[in-house]
């Protein structure tokens, strides 16, 4: 337990930020999983739609400071590559 008033405030602030960050990271992961599920089911149109949603969620997480921009670029690149392999098979 914190002994000072400022430390109590930091505990509250850090808890609030932890919940906020957890929401955005889980949202990004969920969107990525949906893209990969669409790719494994060979549904090209759904995969492209889910890719757009995932890229949007990842970009929003970057703007909010939840993930680093290079991490976001890497994740979007991997998802895009997965969808492209699906398009090349068709």
Briefly summarize what is shown.
The chain is mainly α and 90 residues long. 86% of the residues lie in helices and 0% in strands. The chain has a single domain (5-89), classed as Ribosomal protein S20 (Methane Monooxygenase Hydroxylase, Chain G, domain 1).
Structural key phrases:
90 residues; mainly alpha; 3 helices; 86% helix; 0% strand; elongated
Describe this structure in words.
The protein is elongated, with a radius of gyration of 18 Å. The model has no long low-confidence stretch (mean pLDDT 96). It has a single domain (5-89), classed as Ribosomal protein S20 (Methane Monooxygenase Hydroxylase, Chain G, domain 1, Up-down Bundle), CATH 1.20.58.110. Helices cover 86% and strands 0% of the residues. By secondary structure, the protein is mostly helical. α1 (5-40) packs antiparallel against α2 and α1 packs parallel to α3. The chain has three helices and no strands.
SSE run: HHH
Unreliably modeled segments:
none
CATH architecture: Up-down Bundle
How many angstroms separate the termini?
A: 60 Å
Structural class: mainly alpha
Mean pLDDT: 96
């Amino acid at each position: 337990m914190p002994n000072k008033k400022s430390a109590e405030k930091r505990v509250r602030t850090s808890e609030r930020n932890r919940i906020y960050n957890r929401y955005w990271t889980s949202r990004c992961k969920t969107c990525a999983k949906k893209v990969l599920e669409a790719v494994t089911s060979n549904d090209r149109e759904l995969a492209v739609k889910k890719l757009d949603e995932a890229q949007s969620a990842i970009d929003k997480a970057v703007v909010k400071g939840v993930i680093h921009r290079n991490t976001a670029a890497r994740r979007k690149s991997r998802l895009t590559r997965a969808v492209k392999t699906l398009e090349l098979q068709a």
